[in-house]
Design a protein that fits this description.
heterodimer; A: alpha+beta; Leucine-rich Repeat Variant; TATA-Binding Protein; seven-stranded antiparallel sheet; 16 strands; about 50% helix; flat; B: five-stranded antiparallel sheet; 7 helices; about 40% strand; cytoplasmic vesicle (chain A); AP3B_C (chain A); phosphoprotein (chain A)
Chain lengths: ~1050, ~425
């Protein structure tokens, strides 16, 4: 042991040597080495000896020992040490039952398989077996490891496994196969064609899990095969919201490229619009239509719109990469006037980590050069803080400079003044350059900036002074005539300035404008002649320049000086200076050898020089797609895919149409939606069951008091139904109609409930939680394409449990219109004007998301009231459609006007001002929850299906004791219909009553079930995803049914 | 022939002294010499923060983030959105922090196997696979002292026995079968005020950003809605993926199935139109006289618009000019410290008592003969105000659907200083 103690003190080399010698004492030495730090003992020695015991551990029977060994091996790998020689021992454990052990073995295998190809093959059969495992996660992980082993021999096995996994039942396994595609491709690019087949297959996959990964594979293997995307384009757009965040980035980037090849530019038209915007605004519609013939108006492809619409919500993502990818999509694809939506989100990202700020600021810098307006309101977000990192500071400066304009320049310059004083001198220098740029860009402040910069010349810091001189030089070049004072001032400062670049700049200025400062320039040259030898090269060159220029303009005073300097330059150490001196001498000093050039010396040296343009380094960055690595480093990164220019003519749009594949068992579903969208108007006419409720509301709005009395006049029905289109267009009719003939009003009919069907007229009307199938369908309708596959995919695959198939709903006429009126304005408070409102329960024709409200205005004074209109709508922000001004209301007369209010599916009151010529009255309309619905018709079967989707939190229910009279169908229907604008669903059972509707604003389904039980108990159940409205409606229903 | 593969190729962890202490490769191995380019940039940078996040090298691109004084350097071979990588690296750091409590070199070295297991699950072939902490925790159990002890004795493992289901479910951020005896949901509304105050005390820019951090421990699959009294204050928001966006758009209500445990539900920005109440004021008199080797330093703090709540944990820091050799200051409360090497002055004030305003007065000694600094130092202030959100944002109610039990609910408000600077 004494021997060992001595050993521990000797150097490691010696130790190695003694290790060989001692031999039998080996074990003891090993123990010792364990005690020593690795620094005293060579790593190689430690490793090779340790490996033996690791091997032993791996070959033992105990899992815990094996695991311990693997953990130590992983630690070695993590440190970057080579553990490849353990391969045979490790690979034996690949089939272990212990999950952690197995995983660690996988990690090892993936790391070293490439180096130990033959041995790696031993493990393959294990994976092949696992690929057939009933558990999807085991299948997936087997494929993951198998495809990560970079051994060329197993390429065929991998190919087979990928193909099989691509049609696996489990979307998770399919996702893994998409990942495997990229791995196989980088291992063996020859497999490209086969892999493209798999990609094509997986692109058709409707699972959100797969979408991101397969697009990633597409981008890597065959980014040019745009044709594979066509059929999947709409599906990808629609799935996007539900794809995981990383997949979203990849898909958005790919779709940006796709869209640039498939749609026409939305920008050209924009430009035209901007130019003509004023005329377009003021001139009448007539003129516009005339122009319309000349200009082919731009119509955005609905698919283009679809992409923009479906990516917009992702601006709210917490993932900064997603936000920036949406921002770049809008920047590259959206019409110019829509790009503004990205501003706020980008500014928000500036709160994120330093690295995120860096990338986002770079993108903003590029954007702000082209579109100042976008970021100008957020100028203060770019103010520099003393704690910012240098590269962040300079990016912020860059942006502030780009944002500067006549209006804000004084604020920016004041801010710059603070920066100039910064302790970070590099940043201060950057600020001076920025001031220079502002000064050239905005001529109003050039003088101010120049004065400010001159003041900086007396700054104590060299860098600041030098930078100022350089910037002043550039500024003076743009307008040299007025500034001989500044040049003189700089000449005075010259002795104190030591920074070569600044000295050189001053010398250049002296030379260039020597005729403006004839007294001073020769003196400066005299000083330079003295110090020439000790100057920096750049200063020497400019001295020679100055000498030459002075020689040409003022040879009398400077001839000797110049010759002296030229002589000094001739023997300078630097060959540039020697060259220059030789050249200048030949040029300016006349001698017999100087050729024709000498005559032109003056023109050569004193030629007017164009002023330098101070421009941003981000000016041309937009040649790269924003958000890319290439944009960040301002060079083309390998693998960068160019964004193509918009095509002049859009390629065939129909390539994106998807044929209907009528899924068995779902045929009914697609059929019903077919009906809904294509046979709508026809259906109405055929049935002749009455006008659509939309035109009804326009006329009925003016006749609320007659509403019920005019029920009988159904003979007019047909004419009004035919005129449905007209009345749609002339929504303003409703206001006028009050003053128009009675016959118009007589057309109003009270419709028999549940017979009429009106489809939601615009996309917004049916807009469920996750993504709007209504919206999607709308796009298809306009293009006359058979019903899309995406509808089908939505119905079976929407990953959010709360989506609904509101698109399948058909809105019917109201079952019952309550007579109840509410006071809007009492005649006392209204100074004689009284107003009452009621809900006519008709779909609003201004906008389907609005609830229509009728207001009857009565004049109770003895003088006419003039100009009754709606004034300020208060800050609630509810969208309202106002009635036209009532010009004059005679004493004792009353008039009914109609209003549309989008309550956003909440019972928040709509506050606004009701104004007359003299007065303003604040009033508010408070809707009962039941008024926010539109009745719907559906079959009992559909009802059950919808109900099945709206369980759990979407369901609210209560048991009540029914009032005695409410035990039969009639009164119950009546009570429910009084409370809420719902449609009755035919029911097969006597004790169950069902009602259905949808919310006006978002089109969410509302289902009410009243189930009668024994002894006048009843269970009321409400199913709706509007979890606020549900309980409110329940409360109202409870009250109505129990009380009455 | 190997094609340049996209996405993250390798990851190196570098400590502040420039040693690589961990490396992980998802594709073929990249030599660690690639980091030499990074070290060069590190040497050039005056401060650790000044290392550019994206560094091009002849064959690779290095994208790095700096957190907890560790550089996470990702090696990229070809075009990829840089933010994609940056965001992922931050997610890695967040995960480490979540697992080990702290993200330090020591913690990473101690848990190197868990780190490796995590990295293996988070990226497949360089493309993010499972980044949700809920999913990861199902796959790999975070180490606890108890488990470490048990593992050493019984030889059991950190790897989840059951295979995770979360990734396959329709609610990918929540694992199934969550059970708690005490069901509780806590929400912290934390607002940060960023401001720049100029010499004269007027506000140059001030804005409020806030987050709602949640700690939800609820059994089963609860579905929560959270509504605000004044949702219109929120100008710009970003959500955890669990929040239903359409619902927010239509009703301004947060409706979500929460992840299990801690998560950030929402970050928001308060609309700029609202004037921001500045809760603290600073009276300062910092002067350097030309030719004198002494400078005066006087600082007094006071509460301004705090809505009756006290200012706590007030901390002042300031980077004094290079010419300052030392300070001789006298705080009326708290402790102050001046580091003559970094020239960093910090003053831990603690609570501000409105009756007795804290002040820090004294002199600075300057380098003899050096000229007076051109700029007065900027003062950075940190503070906290408990039980109040500066913007006035208030949660109206929190409802739970989908489960029968009654959870315990709690909401806490707090205001903090973000980047709050006073120029002097």
């Amino acid at each position: 042991s004494v021997f060992l103690l001595i050993l521990s003190n000797v150097s490691s080399n010696y130790l190695l040597f003694s290790h060989d010698l001692v031999g039998s004492n080996c074990a003891a030495v090993l123990g010792l080495c364990g005690l020593l730090n690795s620094s005293t003992c060579s790593d190689l020695f430690l490793l090779s000896t340790r490996n033996d015991d690791l091997k032993e551990m791996l070959e033992s029977n105990k899992d815990s020992l094996k695991l311990d060994a693997m953990k130590r091996i992983i630690a070695l790998i993590a440190k970057g040490k080579n553990a490849s020689e353990l391969f045979p021992a490790v690979v034996k454990n690949v089939a272990s039952k212990n999950i952690e052990l197995k995983k660690l073995v996988y990690v090892y295998l993936v790391r070293y398989a490439e180096e130990q190809q033959d041995l790696a093959l031993l493990s393959i059969s294990t994976f092949q077996r696992a690929l057939k495992d009933p558990n999807q996660l085991i299948r997936a992980s087997a494929l993951r490891v198998l495809s990560s082993i970079r051994v060329p021999i197993i390429v065929p096995i991998m190919m087979l496994a990928i193909k099989e996994a691509a049609s696996d039942m489990s979307p998770y396994v399919r996702k893994t196969s998409a990942h495997a595609i990229q791995k196989l491709y980088s291992l063996d690019p020859d497999q490209k064609e086969h892999l493209i087949e798999v990609i094509d297959k997986l692109l058709k996959d409707k699972s959100t899990l797969v979408a991101g990964s397969v697009v990633m594979a597409f981008e890597e293997v065959c980014p040019d095969r745009i044709d594979l995307i066509h059929k999947n384009y709409r599906k990808l757009c629609n799935l996007l919201v539900d794809v995981e965040e990383w997949g979203q980035v990849v898909i958005i980037t790919m779709l940006t490229r796709y869209a640039r090849t498939q749609f026409t530019s939305p920008w050209k038209e924009d430009g035209l619009f901007d130019e003509n915007s004023e005329t377009a605004f003021y001139e009448s519609d007539e003129k516009k239509t005339k122009n319309g013939d000349e200009k082919k108006s731009y119509m955005m492809d609905p698919d283009h719109r679809l992409l923009l619409r479906n990516t917009k919500p992702l601006l709210q993502s917490r993932n900064t990469a997603v936000v920036v990818s949406v921002a770049q999509l809008y920047w590259h694809l959206a019409p110019k006037h829509e790009v503004g939506v990205i501003t706020k989100s980008l500014v928000r990202l500036l709160r994120s980590h330093r690295e995120v700020q860096y990338v986002v600021l770079q993108n903003i810098a590029t954007m702000s050069i082209q579109r100042k307006g976008m970021f100008e309101p957020y100028m203060k977000s770019f103010y520099v803080r003393s704690t910012d990192a240098t590269h962040i500071k300079s990016l912020k400066l860059e942006i502030l400079t780009s944002l500067a304009n006549e209006a804000n320049i004084s604020t920016i310059l004041r801010e710059f003044q603070t920066y100039v004083k910064s302790q970070d001198k590099q940043f201060a220098a950057g600020t001076i350059q920025a001031i220079g740029r502002c000064a050239t860009n905005i001529s109003e402040v050039t003088d101010t900036c120049l004065q400010g910069l001159v003041l900086l010349l007396s700054n104590r810091d060299e860098t600041v002074v030098a930078e100022s001189v350089v910037v002043i030089k550039k500024l003076l070049q743009t307008q040299p005539t007025q500034h001989s004072d500044i040049i003189k001032h700089m000449a005075k400062l010259f002795d104190n300035i030591a920074v070569p670049m600044a000295r050189a700049s001053i010398l250049w200025l002296m030379g260039e404008y020597c005729e403006r400062v004839p007294q001073i320039a020769p003196d400066v040259l005299r000083k330079m002649a003295k110090s020439f030898t000790s100057e920096e090269d750049i200063v020497k060159l400019q001295t020679v320049n100055l000498a030459a220029k002075l020689y040409l303009t003022n040879s009398k005073q400077t001839k000797l000086l110049t010759q002296y300097i030229l002589n000094l330059g001739k023997y300078d150490q630097n060959y540039d200076i020697r060259d220059r001196t030789r050249f200048i001498r030949q040029l300016i000093v006349p001698n017999e050898k100087s050729g024709a050039l000498g005559k032109y010396a003056r023109r050569i040296l004193l030629a007017p020089k164009p002023a330098p343009v101070l421009e941003s380094t981000y000016k041309d960055r937009d040649r790269y797609q924003l958000g890319t690595l290439s944009h960040t480093i301002n060079t083309k990164a390998s693998g960068y895919l160019e964004l193509s220019d918009w095509p002049a003519v859009a390629p065939d749009q129909s390539v994106r149409n998807v044929e209907v594949i009528e899924p068995t068992g779902k045929s009914k579903l697609s059929k019903s939606s077919d009906d809904k969208f294509y046979s709508d108007s026809g259906e109405e006419k055929e049935k002749g069951s009455g006008s659509s409720s939309s035109d009804d509301s326009s006329s009925s709005s003016s006749s609320s008091s007659e509403e019920s009395s005019s029920e009988a006049e159904s003979d007019e029905e047909k004419s009004s139904s035919q005129s449905s289109e007209e009345s749609d267009k002339s929504s303003s009719l409703s206001e006028k109609s009050s003053s128009e003939s009675d016959s118009e009003q007589k057309k109003t009919t009270k419709k028999p409930p549940q017979k009429k069907t009106v489809k939601p007229t615009t996309k917004d009307s049916a807009c469920p939680l996750v993504c709007g199938p209504g919206e999607r369908l709308h796009g298809f309708v306009s293009k006359q394409v058979p019903v899309s596959l995406s509808l089908y995919s939505l119905c079976i695959l929407t990953p959010c449990p709360l989506s609904c198939a509101a698109a399948l709903l058909q809105v019917s006429g109201p079952a019952f219109v309550p007579e109840k009126r509410h006071d809007l304005l009492h005649r006392m408070t209204g100074k004689g004007l009284s107003a009452q409102y009621q809900f006519p329960r008709q779909p609003c024709l201004y906008q389907p998301t609005m609830v229509s409200v009728q207001i009857s205005l009565t004049n109770t004074t003895d003088h006419p009231l003039e100009q009754i209109h709606i004034g300020d709508r208060g800050p609630t922000g509810l969208d309202m459609h106002c009635f036209n001004t009532v010009e004059c209301l005679l004493p004792e007369a009353s008039v009914t006007v109609s209003l549309g209010v989008d309550f956003n599916d909440s019972t928040q009151a709509a506050n606004f001002q009701l104004c007359t010529k003299e007065d303003q009255f604040s009033v508010s309309i408070q809707p009962a929850v039941g008024e926010l619905f539109l009745p719907a018709t559906m079959t009992e079967q559909d009802f059950r299906k919808e109900q099945g989707k709206l369980l759990g939190m979407n369901e609210s229910s209560a048991t009540i004791t029914m009032a005695a009279e409410n035990t039969t169908r009639q009164p119950i229907s009546r009570q429910v219909a009084t409370v809420a604008n719902l449609g009755v669903v035919p029911s097969g059972q006597d004790n169950i009553h069902r009602f259905a509707g949808k919310t006006a604003s978002s089109g969410a389904v509302v289902l009410v079930t009243v189930e009668l039980r024994e002894s006048s108990a009843a269970l009321i159940t409400i199913n709706t995803e509007k979890s606020v409205m549900g309980p409110m409606l329940l409360r109202d229903l409870k009250r109505a049914l129990a009380r009455a | 022939m190997q094609l340049p593969a996209k996405m993250i190729h390798s990851l190196f962890l570098v400590n502040s002294s420039g040693d690589i202490f961990l490396e992980k490769h998802w594709k073929s191995v990249v030599s660690r010499s690639v980091c030499d380019y990074f070290f060069e940039a590190q040497e050039r940078a005056s401060e650790p923060e000044n290392v550019p996040p994206v560094i091009p090298t002849p064959h690779h691109y290095l994208i790095s983030v700096l957190r907890h004084r560790i550089y996470f350097v990702a090696v990229i071979q070809s075009e990829v959105p840089p933010l994609f990588v940056i965001e992922f690296l931050h997610r890695v750091v967040d995960t480490f922090q979540d697992y080990f409590g702290v993200c330090t070199e020591a913690a990473i070295k101690d848990n190197v196997v868990v780190v490796y297991e995590l990295l293996e699950e988070m990226l497949d072939n360089g493309f993010p696979l499972a980044t949700e902490s809920n999913i990861l925790k199902e796959l790999i159990k975070p180490p606890t002292i108890l488990r470490t002890v048990v593992n050493t004795i019984t030889g059991s493992t950190n790897v989840g026995e059951q295979l995770p289901t979360g990734q396959l479910s329709v609610v990918p951020w929540r694992r199934t079968g969550v059970k708690y005896t005490n069901n509780e949901a806590y929400f912290d509304v934390v607002e940060e005020i960023d401001a720049i105050i100029d010499k004269s005390g007027s506000t140059i820019t001030a804005e409020i950003q806030g987050v709602i951090d949640a700690c939800v421990k609820l059994t089963g699959m609860p579905d929560l809605t959270l509504s605000f009294m004044n949702p219109r204050l929120l100008d710009d928001v970003s959500f955890h993926p669990c929040v239903r966006f359409k619902r927010w758009e239509a009703e301004r209500i947060l409706s979500f199935i929460p992840p299990d445990g801690n998560f950030r539900l929402l970050s928001y920005h308060v609309s700029c139109q609202n004037l921001v109440a500045i809760p603290v004021y600073v009276k300062h008199n910092i002067t350097f006289r030309e030719g004198s080797s002494q400078g005066r330093f006087e600082l007094t703090l006071g509460p301004k618009q705090t809505m009756g709540k006290g200012l706590e944990a007030v901390l002042i820091s300031s980077q004094l000019p290079r010419g300052v050799l030392n300070t001789n200051l006298n705080p009326s409360q708290g402790t102050y410290n001046f580091d003559p090497v970094t020239k960093l002055l910090s003053w831990d004030v603690g609570k501000i008592n409105p009756q007795k305003l804290p002040s820090l007065k004294g002199s600075m000694s300057l380098q003899a003969g050096a000229s007076k600094p051109d700029e007065n130092p900027t003062i950075n202030i940190q503070f906290k105000i408990q039980q109040s959100a500066l913007s006035g944002l208030k949660v109206n109610r929190l409802d739970m659907y989908g489960e029968k039990y009654k959870p315990f609910k709690g909401i806490k408000y707090m205001t903090k200083a973000g980047k709050f600077q006073v120029r002097t």
